[in-house]
Amino acid sequence: MSVPSSEQLDQVGNEIPADLRATAAPTPEGSGSDQMKSLEWPAAKKTAGAAPGAAVHKEGEAQAFEATLTAHGDPRHHGGTVCDMPAVGGAAVLRMEHIQGVEIKGPPPTVSDVLTMTRAFRAAADNGAHKVHSPITHSWLQAMMAGVFITFGAVTAMFIGGNTTGIAATDPGLSQMIFGIFGFPTGLFAVVLTGAELFTGNCLVCTAAWAEGRCTTPEFLRSLTVSWFGNLSGALLCVGIFKGARFAEEADRLHAFMVNVAHIKTSMNWGQCFLRGVLANFLVDLAVLQAAISTTFVGKFLGIFLAVSMFASLALEHVVANMSMVPLGMIHGADVSVWKFIYANLIPVTLGNYVGGGVMIGMVYAVLFGKWSEKFSNAVRWPKRAFDGEHH
Questions:
Q1: What are phi and psi of 110, to 5 degrees?
Q2: 118-377: what fold?
Q3: Any residues with CB less than 8 A from the CB of 200 and at least 6 apart, and which?
Q4: Max CA-CA distance within the chain?
Q5: 97-106, 192-201, 237-246, 283-292: lowest mean pLDDT where?
Q6: Separation in Å, CA 148 to CA 41, 122, 236, 283, 307
Q7: Which residues contact 291 (CB under 8 A, 6 or more apart)?
Q8: Average pLDDT, stretch 90-103?
Q9: DSSP string, 21-46
Q10: Which of 367, 307, 295 is closest to 116 using CA atoms?
Q11: Mean pLDDT of the 344-360 span
């Protein structure tokens, strides 16, 4: 392997924005192989965005100049790889203060529309750390907006479901599919694109930040609590506006559908609610993770749409959706008290949602792709004697 000179790097400069071009300088004596060079990237702090995982390459050649960043002294990364140079002029990079280890590699890679799982998990942890350390007033308003977005999704699903009761009688499978396709995926998509604080999404990203050591346990719990109550306030505000607009007052089928939904959701036992909550947020946080993996608008939408439409079609329990669906039934005549709503639905579904998203997605992927990976790989090993060839 050889190291490209500054002249060679200049040859590929046409593919790199002018303010991102690197200049080679010798590595300090005694710091490692003579193949290693140290590159300063002065303008990189001003850039942020979307082409991690790509490499800089000279067009038409079979080899690529790949520059991998090591963030020295950054406690968030502990020397781990953060991002690579972009392959296309104008493409942005993630944080970049210092890169090390430029070498020739081939064949030339192409810019991918997806991140590796390691980078996707790191992006989720970054997102969670940002949310955890945001001012409470900022987090509260973002959580209220998330509650509004999910309420619009829930009301849309109920509006369509309540007006397709004829289909439900003859083809219940089609009716459930229609209920799942419209509303809920759009609500979560709005949450992801705007960066709103959704409790069920925070179960994943804040757990990832906590597992990576980016926040303390009290900070983590505070963030989940603020997002939960902020979601509730946004959902109830939106329900009140729908009530004031006399939504569904003159539609008997829709009115009856909302009342029936409220009764069903508060009539299950704790075990049912909890387990349906586990399943629901496993799918919802899978959608959030799939959105993080994709770097394109369409990719994010498909990642969210496929998983969320599954959760909604299966009639699983999502606590933030229930914050609007059950109150809508209550204000239209459902015989459900506030205490019954809290005890029989909100509490078990909240706990189930955390297990499904925070434990089954967040913690599992922390073991697979985060800092917990090394701890578990060192702690759990196969006994050597079982494979030493002396025992059969």
A1: -110, 160
A2: Glycerol uptake facilitator protein (1.20.1080)
A3: 280, 281, 284, 285, 318, 319, 320, 353, 357
A4: 81
A5: 97-106
A6: 42, 28, 8, 21, 21
A7: 192, 300, 303, 304
A8: 37
A9: --EEEEPPTTSS-TT-EEEE-GGGGG
A10: 295
A11: 97
* Integer Cα distance of 238 and 147 in angstroms: 8
How does pLDDT run across 189-240, given as a tens digit for each residue? 999 999 999 999 999 999 999 999 999 999 999 999 999 999 999 999 999 9
* Cβ–Cβ under 8 Å, residues 19 and 86: no
Classified as helix, coil or strand, 290 is helix
376 and 218 Cβ atoms separated by less than 8 Å: no
Lookup: tokens for 287: 């959608």
- Is 203 within 8 Å of 362 (Cβ atoms)? yes
Contact 344, 350 (CB under 8 A): no
C-alpha torsion sign, points 343, 348, 353, 358? positive
Residues 6+ apart with CB under 8 A from 268: 276, 344, 345
Q: CA angle, 248 as apex, 337 and 176 as ends, to 5°? A: 85
Choice among 76-80, 164-168, 282-286 with the minimum mean pLDDT = 76-80
Q: Please list the alpha-helical segments (H only) found in the chain.
A: 6-11, 117-132, 136-162, 165-170, 172-181, 184-194, 199-211, 217-244, 252-265, 270-293, 297-313, 319-331, 338-341, 347-354, 364-369, 372-379
Confidence of residue 342 (pLDDT cuts 50, 70, 90): very high
Q: Give the number of other CB atoms < 10 A from CB of residue 177.
A: 15
* Residue keyed to tokens 């690197």: 22
DSSP lists the bridge partners of residue 40 as 23, 98
pLDDT of residue 384: 58
- The token pair at 224 is 């989940």
Compare 390 and 71 and report the one with higher pLDDT: 390
> What are the extents of the domains in the chain?
6-112, 118-377
